[in-house]
Amino acid sequence: MSEKEITFSTTIGPTHPAFKEPIQLSFELHGEEIVAADFVPGQAHRGVEWMGMRRNPVQILYLAERICGICGVTHAMSFARAVEQIAGIEVPRRAHYLRSIACEWERIHSHLLWAGVAAHELGFDSLFYVAWQAREKVLDLMEDFTGSRVHYSTIAIGGVRRDLDDRVRKAMDETLAFYESVFEQLRRAFLEDDTVRLRCVGTGVLTAKEALELCAVGPTARASGIPWDVRQDHPYAAYAEVPVKAVLPDAYTGETHGDVYDRIVVRVFEILQSVQLLHQLLDQLPEGPINACPKPVALLMRLKKATGEAVGMHEAPRGEVSHYVRLAAAEAPLSWKVKASSYSNYMSWVPMLVGEQVADIPIIAASIDPCISCTDRVLVRKGGGSGGASSSGQVLTKADLTRLSVAKTRRLQASAAARAEVVR
C-alpha cells in the first residue's frame, strides 16, 4: 500500500469540549487531511413532540419555547402560526409588529452569541469577550420587554402577551443606538482581522450547487449565494409591510465563496439589517389590541373545536423553522412535528469538512451554528435482538427506554466503583 493510501479513522464526540451539546463526528484521515466525514446525531432526544401531543395548544407554546435555549421566540412563533391558521384566528396588526420586533432582537442576540462561540473556536478569546459583552445589552433589553432574558413567553395564540410601553420603547431606542455605535468595531474585528481571515478564508467551502442539493437554509445557504429567506419569500407578521432582502456576501465583499468567512459576513451584516428593521418596526408600530383571543377559556374552547392541519414557518437566526400541527376537535393535537433549521444544515458538514485539516474541524462545525438538542428525534430500532427492543422488534417504548436507562446508569456506577477500587 502506498503512503497516499494509508488512512486512519477517528471520532470527535459525542462529548467534547468543542461541542456544547452531544453529537459525534467521525473522520477518515490521511495525516492531517480529512478524506471522509460523517456524523451521528441522536444523543439528546428529549421526547418534546411526544409530550406536546399530551397537552393542549396553549400549554405546548411554553414547551415549544424550550426546544431551543437560544431561540425563545422562534419555535413558539412557528407553532402559534400553524394553530392560528387551523383555528382561523386573525392576529391584530399591532401584535404582528410586536412579534417581529421580538424576532429581530432575538436575531441580534443569536448572531452575537454565535460570533463569540466562533471566536472561541478560533482560539481568539479576546474577541469572544467583545461579542458576548455586546450581547448582554440585548439580553437585558429582552428582560425589560418580556420579563425574561432567555425564555420570553411573549408569543400567545392570537397575538402577544405583553405590550410595549414608553419605558421599554426608550430602552429599545438606546440599545439600537448602542449597536449602531459598536457595529463598526465588530465588523473590523470579525472581517478585517488577519487572524480571522487566515483561518476562515477558503476554509469549509460549501458551493451554491451543494447548498441547493443538501437543502441548506439560513445564513449557511445565503453565504453560498442562495437568496432564501422566509421573511422575504413568504412574508408574515409585519414583514409584509417592512420588506426584507436576503443578505448575501457579495453585496459587501464583491464575491461569494461559500466559506467560513462568508458565513461570518452574512451574520455580521444581518445584525446591521436587524437594527435597521427594528427602527422601521418601532417607527411604524400601529395602535390597537395585542391579542385576538384575550380570554384563555374562550381560546381553549375554540381550539378544542378546531379541525385541520397547517404548517407554521419562521426565519429563525439559523434559518427556516417549520412546525406541522394537526388538530382534530380534541384537547391535544393529533400530530405535532418540528423541523429545526439545523436539521436542514447538518448534511452541509460533509462537503465543508472533506479536504480540510483536522485543526479546522471546530470552526467549520461551528460555522453552521448547529443546535443539537432542537434537532434530535426518537430513534426507531429495527431487527430486535438482545439490545432491549420491544416485543414488536421495531420500536423502543417508554418502558423500554426507562429500563435501558436504568441499566446503563447501573453499569456506569459499577464501572466507576471498580475504578475507585483500583485507585485505592
Report on this model:
- By secondary structure, this protein is mainly α.
- It folds into two domains: 49-334, Cytochrome-c3 Hydrogenase, chain B, CATH 1.10.645.10; 383-424.
- 49% of the residues lie in helices and 12% in strands.
- It is built from 17 helices and eight strands.
- The strands form three sheets. The chain has a three-stranded antiparallel beta sheet. The chain has a three-stranded antiparallel beta sheet with strand order 6-7-8.
- Strand 6 and strand 7 form a beta hairpin.
- Helix 2 (57-65) runs antiparallel to helix 3 (74-87), helix 4 (93-121) runs antiparallel to helix 5 (125-146) and helix 6 runs antiparallel to helix 12 (260-283).
- The termini are far apart.
- The model is unreliable at 384-391 (pLDDT under 50).
